[in-house]
Amino acid sequence: MNQSSVETVDVKAVNKKENRNLFEKREKIQPKRATGTFRRLKWIIMGITLAIYYVTPWIRWDRGAGAPDQAVLLDIEHRRFYFFFIEIWPQEVYYVTGILIVAAISLFLVTALFGRAWCGYSCPQTVWTDLFIFVERAVEGDRNARLKLDKAPMSVGKFSKRLVKHVIWIVIGLLTGGAWVFYFADAPTLLQDLLTADARPIAYSTIAVLTATTYTFGGFMREQVCTYMCPWPRIQGAMVDEETLTVTYHGNRGEPRGPHKKNESWEGRGHCIDCKQCVAVCPMGIDIRDGLQLECITCALCIDACDSVMDKIDLPRGLISYDTHEGSLEKAANKKLKVKFIRPRTLAYVGLLALVGGIMLYALLTRSVLDVNVIRDRNPLFVTLSDGHIRNGYTVKILNKIHETRRFVVTVEGLEGSEAWLQIEGPRHRQMIVPVPGDSLSSVKLFVSAPAEAVEDGSTDIVIVVKDLFNGETERQETSFKGPK
Amino acid sequence: MANIEKDEVSGVDTTGHEWDGIKELDTPMPRWWLWTFYATIVWAIGYWVLMPAWPLVSEHTKGMLGYSSRGNLEQELSAAEAAQADKVAALLATEITEVKDNADLYQFALAGGRSNFAVNCSQCHGSGAQGGPGFPNLNDDDWLWGGSIEQIYQTVQFGIRSDHEDTRIGNMPAFQTDEILERGQILDVAEYVLSLSQEGRDMDAAGRGKEVFAAECSSCHGDDAKGNTELGAPNLTDAIWFYGGDKDTIVRTISKGRANVMPAWTDRLDDAVIRQISLYVHSLGGGE
């Protein structure tokens, strides 16, 4: 059993199908530290994603007086969503729908190309769990030390280690929840309010809830969130095909596996020395040598672990590697690996992405800064005047989406012999001009009267036109003019 | 008899019962469930202490926090009242004809008028103020007692034929019941009145009716039958009919008279509310 400088880890893949008894309590996974390319990549991505999360609310963006200068702000109180140069009102929530559609298709595309890259590298659950395990390792030591500590009876040393770990975890949780609320209010003001206990209760309760979820999800539930709570692994089942990159153990090269003594020949046996390093580093508690499985988030730490073992025993790297199912079959047939990134499926996703993205971009670029709504009075439906004319009332709502006052002129088209006036002006002074302050909605009452003969069959279509006096931007709203049948 | 065994896999006892070889595990309640349950019990006890909870014979336990939904409502109402106090004071201090010049105050008055109209006026005048036979439509430009803001304000304050001493009264006599006119004369007058706004009436009858009208009706309705808002006498030449514009209704109006009542609101509502309602009615489109 004397293996060349490679330690065989006594580890059980707790989420291996045979090991997972429904009646058994969950066994805590104590992942061993891995080093290598993918571990480094994961650190970098963790740094970037955490930086995005913490820095974004602090980016300033000048929108002029009276508007918030925060680049990304979900202003729920004033019902505005700011994203750099984009400003969205509640009725334009379809932009959010568009963003979600783009996000979903991007996820499908990435999955078709690289498998569960999202799960393995950038999912918040993965990033924060990684961070929590990092803290655990820094305080309590690596896998063996932690296992020993778990078994040891309670002592001052054990207690203080546990205490330090949990305090750091809670602080991370607090910082996580604390950063979240900055997306919903002016960050510098809110920070000051939070520190002086002047912020609203909702801010504190949001922080409390997110601290609690971060602490439990990252500290205790970890891989169970991915396996039992998240729908993505199930959806993934339908997304992965034989051309998808997944973390693959090349059984044709590795089997038959078995312990290997120094200077022993590799003839007639596989390259896997059954050192179980790949199992020990796995945060999901699986044995990748069982093949692709639901729990695998393709974090590639087993690749790092295996590669360092291969280096030690002077065998080529890549016994476990990113590969496609197809690719591993070809390798078995001693063919060259080629990953086909351009496939009907990926092309379809790219096409969809371009289409939806194009529509979104078009909608954003041609976004109107004027919105007009006309609501016809229904009670009463129409009024007969003393001279026999028919009068209808309309509420015209004019939405000015820029931050300056604009003046609009209201006219009525399509009704023979009609007269129109604004309630506020009265029938005698008909300027028909409505000033609308910046970033707000003005609602005016419009009266239109016409001879009874102008209304055929009780209803005639008319158009109410609202035109910006200064730049001529015009909105036309079709509505109807009702009269007696 | 019960034969309790220990299950090997789970380490849990069975219930000891067996049905066709099937045994049931006596698995305890999940701990999270139990703890949640205990927490709800603790919560309930705390609730009894702090909040109104137990019904007694004639009242109920008040709870230490002294919460009551009625108290909350009162608080909210007085808070709302306090929030509006400035505007109400401004409304009372401003001439009713000048409220319109202050856009903010005018918006406040219209909003308050709308809801107060719905509560106090819509029963007769309709929710859209469209009225009905015997109840005037407040949207149109035809006013029995005048459609200027001051006149509307006066009408809402003191009513028409109400029991208030400052009320305005105008009576349409019952020409047949009181035996002032003959049936035939009444039919002629009705024909005449209709001929003022319609073509193709019986002009012979209308001609006879015109004489009767000049003698009996013109004192209130005017020589040209265009009415008189001082007396609440309607304009008979336009397209709007208070009780209905068909001949039968007109004959009935002349024969039996009309005397509908608009209540006086000055003793029932605050002056500010009456001003709001008056401004709202004036804004409906027919205000002069």
TrEMBL record, chain B:
Looking up Gene3D superfamilies in the UniProt record yields: 6.10.280.130, Cytochrome c-like domain (1.10.760.10)
Q: Which organism is it from?
A: Sneathiella chinensis
Protein name per the record: Cbb3-type cytochrome c oxidase subunit
Q: Which residues cross the membrane?
A: 32-50
How many cofactors are bound and how? Answer: Binds 2 heme C groups per subunit.
Q: Give the family per the record.
A: Belongs to the CcoP / FixP family.
UniProt xrefs under InterPro entries: CcoP_N, CcoP_N_sf, Cyt_c-like_dom, Cyt_c-like_dom_sf, Cyt_C_IC, Cyt_c_oxidase_cbb3_su3, Cytochrome_c_Oxidase_Subunit
Entry keyword set: Cell inner membrane, Cell membrane, Electron transport, Heme, Hydrogen ion transport, Ion transport, Iron, Membrane, Metal-binding, Oxidoreductase, Repeat, Respiratory chain, Transmembrane, Transmembrane helix, Transport
- Compartmental location: Cell inner membrane
Main location, first listed in the record: membrane
- At the top level, the lineage of the source is Bacteria
Instruction: Indicate the quaternary assembly.
Output: Component of the cbb3-type cytochrome c oxidase.
Give the protein's cofactors: heme c
Q: In which pathway does it act?
A: Energy metabolism; oxidative phosphorylation
State which gene encodes it. Answer: fixP
Cytochrome c domain location, by residue?
A: 108-197, 204-285
Function recorded in the entry: C-type cytochrome. Part of the cbb3-type cytochrome c oxidase complex.
